[in-house]
Amino acid sequence: MLVTPVNRGKANTQDENTGNPDKPGSLADDQWNSSEWAAADQKIEIQEDAGELYEHFHFVVDKKQSPLRIDKYLMAKIENASRNRIQNSAHAGNILVNGIVIKPNYKVKPRDVISIVLAFPPRDTEVYPENIPVSIVYEDADILIVNKAPGMVVHPGHGNFTGTLQNALLYHLQLTNPGDPDAKPFLVHRIDKDTSGIMLIAKNELAQTKIAKQFFDHTIDRTYVALVWGNIDHDEGTIDANIGRDIRNRLIQAVYDDPEKGRHAVTHYHVLERFGYVTLVECRLETGRTHQIRVHFRHIGHPLFNDDSYGGAEILKGTTFTRYRQFVQNSFKMIPRQALHAKSLGFIHPSTREFIHFDSEYPEDLQSVVEKWRHYSIHQNLDNSSNSEL
Hints:
Layout: H1 34-40, E1 42-47, E2 54-60, E3 68-69, H2 70-77, H3 83-91, E4 95-97, E5 100-101, E6 107-108, E7 113-119, E8 135-139, E9 143-148, H4 165-176, E10 186-187, E11 196-202, H5 205-216, E12 221-229, E13 236-240, E14 242-245, E15 253-256, E16 266-274, E17 278-285, H6 292-299, H7 322-334, E18 340-348, E19 355-359, H8 364-379
Parallel strand pairs: 11-18
Antiparallel strand pairs: 1-2, 2-7, 3-6, 4-5, 4-7, 8-9, 9-11, 10-11, 12-17, 12-18, 13-16, 14-15, 16-17, 18-19
C-alpha cells in the first residue's frame, strides 16, 4: 500500500537552537503559504508492497496545538501505533522534528515538522512454529542472517499459511529460547519466493526499528546475481525507471514514465560473465521495489533467465537448431525459477553500530546452469558480441 510519497525536497530554516537536539528549530508561518501547509499536513509512506518493510509518517503540527509529549501526539495521529512502538522509534533515532533527532520526552510545538519511521507492525495472520530446515548463517542477541532456499515463501499470506521462513524461524527461536514469549522473528525485508539468498531478520522490536531506518535511508548494501537473456551492450550501467503495479496484471509490476503511476527505482549493474546468448550480471539495489531487478531487466530487453512472469521462460536468443532448443529446455529444468540470487548484504549492526557484511555462495541450481552455459559458450566458440534474435 502506498499513500502519497514523502516530499524530501522542502527546505526548512531553523532557529538559533538547532544545534540542541532537545530544542529543534521551528518553521516560521511565513515560510510556506497556506496551500503548502495544507499539502504538507500529513504524508504517509507505507513500504509494504515492496521488499522493504517500514512505515514512514510525516506531519506538520497545527498552529493551534498546545504543548504535548511527542509520543502522545503521534499515538493520536497514527492508527494502531502503541506507545512502545513510538518510543522504540525515538530510542532508535527515527523521529525527527524539523530535521533534528529528538528525545522521547520532547513536546511538540505549533508548526513543528515531524518525520517518523516505524518498523512494519506484526501481521494479523497467526504464525505457528514449524520444524522446517533453514540455513542460519549468523545469529546473535539482535539479528539473524539466513540464506533462504529458493521456493520458500518469507511469511504467511495469499494462500501460503504454512511452510514459510517465518514459521521455520519461530520454531528455531522458541527451541533456543524456551519459555520466552517474546522469542520471535521480526521481519525487516523480504525476497520473492523463487529468489534465493541472504536475508536479515531482527530478533526484537528495537533492532527491527533501527534496521527499518537503514532501509528507509537506503544505506543497506545489497547485491544480487542474475542470469539474463541476451548480451548486454555495456559492461556496467544504471537502470533508473519508475515501477508500479501493472494495470493489466495486478500480480506483476511495470515501468511507468509518469511518477504518479510508479515509484522511483534505481538498479546498478555490472557484467560478471558473457555467454553469448545470456549474460551473468551483479546488481546493486539503490531502492527496493517489488520485483525491481526482474522488471528493470525486462524493461531494457534482457528478462531474467526462466522468469515466467516477465517473459524469460521462452527461448529469446540463440539459434533455431533443435539441439540448441533442447539445450535451453534442459537448462530451464535445471533452474525451474527465475535465475536470481541475493548474494550479499551489508548494514550497521543495531547494537554495536559497526558495519557488518555477509556473502553467500551460489545455490546449486544457479551454479549448475551457469556452468552449463559457460561450457556451451566455450564449446560453441561464441563471441561475446552475439545477440541474435530467433
